[in-house]
From TrEMBL, chain A:
GO terms, biological process: exonucleolytic trimming to generate mature 3'-end of 5.8S rRNA from tricistronic rRNA transcript (SSU-rRNA, 5.8S rRNA, LSU-rRNA); nuclear mRNA surveillance; nuclear polyadenylation-dependent rRNA catabolic process; rRNA catabolic process; TRAMP-dependent tRNA surveillance pathway; U1 snRNA 3'-end processing; U4 snRNA 3'-end processing; U5 snRNA 3'-end processing
UniProt domain Exoribonuclease phosphorolytic: residue ranges: 33-194
Key words of the record: Cytoplasm, Exosome
PANTHER family, sorted: EXOSOME COMPLEX COMPONENT RRP42, EXOSOME COMPLEX EXONUCLEASE RIBOSOMAL RNA PROCESSING PROTEIN
Family: Belongs to the RNase PH family.
UniProt cross-references to InterPro entries, sorted A to Z: ExoRNase_PH_dom1, ExoRNase_PH_dom2_sf, Exosome_comp_Rrp42_subfam, PNPase/RNase_PH_dom_sf, Ribosomal_Su5_D2-typ_SF
The keyword Cytoplasm appears for this protein: yes
Gene Ontology terms for molecular function: mRNA 3'-UTR AU-rich region binding
The protein's name in its UniProt record: Ribosomal RNA-processing protein 42
Main location: cytoplasm
Domain of life: Eukaryota
Automatic annotation (TrEMBL), chain B:
Domain Exosome complex component N-terminal: 47-84
Region Disordered, residue ranges: 1-27
Molecular function as annotated in GO: RNA binding
Keywords annotated in UniProt: Exosome, Nucleus, RNA-binding, rRNA processing
A single BP term in Gene Ontology: poly(A)-dependent snoRNA 3'-end processing
Subcellular locations according to the entry: Nucleus
Organism domain of life: Eukaryota
One annotated Gene Ontology cellular component of this protein: cytoplasmic exosome (RNase complex)
Protein name (database record): Ribosomal RNA-processing protein 4
K Homology domain span: 190-230
Lineage of source species: Eukaryota, Fungi, Dikarya, Basidiomycota, Agaricomycotina
Polar residues bias spans: 1-19
Predominant cellular place of this UniProt entry's protein: nucleus
Species of the source: Trametes cubensis
Amino acid sequence: MAAQLVSKSERAYIQASLQATPPLRGDGRGLLDFRTVLLETGVAPLANGSAKLNIGKMPHEGGGGTEVLAATKLEVEDVESGDGVDGGRVVCSVSWCAIRSIQLEPIVQLTKDSSPSAYPHLSSNALDELQYDLTVILQQTIGHPSLHPQNLTIIPRKKSWLLNLDAVILADAGNAVDALFMAARAALWDTKVPRTRAVEYQAPEDSQTTRDSASAMDVDNREAIPTASGFDTREMARTAADFELPDYWDEGEVLHGRERWPVCITLNLLPPSHFLDATPPEEASVPLRMHLMYSFASPSTPKLQSMRLLGPGELNSAQIKSYISEGEKYARELFNALESKLREEDVRRNVKARDRFAQR
Amino acid sequence: MISFASFPSTSEGSGSYTNTRHHPKIEEDEVGMDLDEDDFEEGTQRLTVPGESITSSHAFMRGHGTFVDDEEVIASVAGTVERVNKLITVRAVRSRYNPEVGDLVVGRITEVQPRRWKVDANSRQDAVLMLSSVNLPGGVQRRKLESDELQMRTFFEEGDLLVAEVQAFFADGAMSLHTRSLRYGKLRNGQLVTVPPILIRRLKSHFVALPCGVDLILGLNGYIWVSKHVKESEQEGEEGFDAEAVYSNKNDSIDDATRIAVSRVSNIIKVLAAHFVPLTDTILLEAYEWVVEQEGNVKDLLSDEFGETMVASLGLVPISLLTDVMHTGGF
């Protein structure tokens, strides 16, 4: 991620500690230990699905930790006019909260600043690049055709849903990419696609009444119309031209294949060892980082959806192979933990909704 | 290895926001009480939250952290009310570091400029360290040469950590630092921990040596340097002042026990800061002894219950009122 400034002696201290036997980390964690991850789904009431995730927040304290907010919003797109794609699209974007300082003056005002609170030390050019990088990683992995959900079609060849996935990095205290993917997965898991029903538009068939005189209005002369020629495309337009939402109170159904959404695991490589969930000084002290995005559609055959190698160091193919298989193990553990948490969240929110209803 | 949890709920139970919450010790009628001038006696601490009316603007002047509305002085931040004669200020519980001349700070070089370094010291603006305010190789009395200006990066470069003293202020409020003492200068052999600046008490000495072989430098700006102990006699002396040692980037050899102790002390500081306990050398020492008695792992320290037992066992419960103020008044 964004390189945090560390001095040479700090870097040497971190590297020497990691290479000691047994390896030590600045906060006493083991090499493969994550900080505590806090997750909550359904945080944005206006979104179709949303999640807030924090890695490494200290208890009691107001802030701290890497915090990511992800939300999805569905939008109707017209396929025929060329905006949309048949079967729907997924568009991802990553940004940061630009509200830098909040002051309470006689009225509360929000002061906007070009540099965000997550990366206050970066120039605007570096921020743009970072934003682009993260957006591309997310888009290429989440928006990949192999993960495309089947139920984004409203009316075949006419209307489809556009799934916007927006992630905001509120604070970066290390390991932002893992947090980003976990939040994205949670938001997509939480997404509900509204149920739709196709509406057929019945064209007034006696269209020649306009031509006829007013006196012929009440005459049923349907039989008199010659059958439409093959070039007349109005017939096709007559079937299922639009849709309606049958139950407005219902949130809808979940995205198809929501088990497939990938998780990311970042291996911080400091040969010969590697470790997970780095803090910013640790991130700045390792020469290489490897992002591995795994999808566990069927638990027995995980799929490596994408992979990034960052940093100036180098690896040979045998090492890469071993890291990929190691990464699969960690990713599976992360996936299982996240999956059970997401199911827990589903239960919690259903109970809450029921309670709210009972209170009325 | 990886564990998930929920965000701590902001409202305990449903509908708690409909009732006003007060600290249990405060009686209802006390809260509504109007404040007289006697409430601002020296030595008594009074806490306030944003939007709370402090006093009448006829009798007092508004200072930092307050504004006047409807002839009343109203707090704009959560913190303690302070009074100097007729001037009322509120010192925020959480804010950036407000420098004062003579403070000891730990900072990080962000930029090298002609004849000066820019230093991040957790203040509103970057601090400035002039080339003329550092000790250069060859003794204190040496003149600054043009060659020194050309090799400023051999002394400090971007990212380097240093300990310095606030020397003066510029017209715009930025602080000027100096490292003209043998105890000041570049930092090595350890790691940095950051806490809110308000938690650092002014002490007799901000260089603390714990008996576990760990040195602490408690910067008043909230940056704390935790490092391996260096013996007094082995510190770089006045005569043998050589740039090699003072401006070195190389760490000494540090054994594993010391590294573990450094991590343990860092975690203790983090836990105390999370519970909003003001840090002093005695508290840190007590906490360290307690932790060693428990024989826990270093990483267990960061767990929630362990931190709470530690803070409770030290007899430190100053947080209840203060965090109440912060949670209700803070953002």
